[in-house]
Amino acid sequence: MGKRGPIPNREDDLARPRERKGGDVEPITRGELRKVTIPHADPNWHPIARKLWDSLKTSGQADFYQNSDWAFAYSLCEDLSYYKSSGKRSGQMLQSIYSAMERLLVTEGDRRRVRIELHEPEEEQVPASVIAIADYKAALGVAQ
């Protein structure tokens, strides 16, 4: 789990990279990604639990989820559905659900605490050589 305390600034907002500041830059241990199968949502879930499930599938942090993460998210949505559908609600249960959401990096603050930032996709750049060849062909009157 990430560090406690204030939410760190985005990497773009820093004057220099974190690794140049010194301090506690932890090395990364790498593993191998496995094929992921996302389970189907339970049709009987509360609409808010279903909305959370659907948003997890389309959010950027889902790129990092493995089967165990999806199983945990499924369990969390099951608990959220029970909480929202039950007649009496417990503040402790709600806090437990919100705490579990942090572990799935549901909010931007949760992701920034563990140094994951989601950015806009970069536009595809056409190499200059391809543009130059197209310009030469156009100048020569060659059809493309």
Describe this structure in a few short sentences.
This protein is mainly alpha-helical and 144 residues long. 44% of the residues lie in helices and 0% in strands. Helix 1 runs antiparallel to helix 2 (67-85) and helix 2 packs antiparallel against helix 3 (91-103).
Order of helices and strands: HHHHH
Query: Count the helices. How many?
Result: 5
Strand fraction? under 5%
Specify the helix fraction band. 40-55%
The shape is: elongated
Instruction: Report the average pLDDT across residues.
Output: 82
Poorly predicted ranges: none
Q: What is the CA–CA distance across the termini?
A: 55 Å
Main sheet? Answer: none
Radius of gyration, in Å, reads 23 Å
**Structural class designation:** mainly alpha
User: How many independent structural domains?
Assistant: 1
Structure description:
- The protein has one domain (11-119).
- It starts with 46 loop residues before the first helix and ends with a helix.
- The protein has 5 helices and no strands.
- With 144 residues, it is mostly helical.
- It is elongated.
- Helix 1 runs antiparallel to helix 2 (67-85) and helix 2 (67-85) runs antiparallel to helix 3 (91-103).
Task: Name the features.
elongated; mainly alpha; 144 residues
What's the structural blueprint in terms of helices and strands?
Layout: H1 47-58, H2 67-85, H3 91-103, H4 108-113, H5 128-140
Helix pairs in contact: 1-2, 2-3
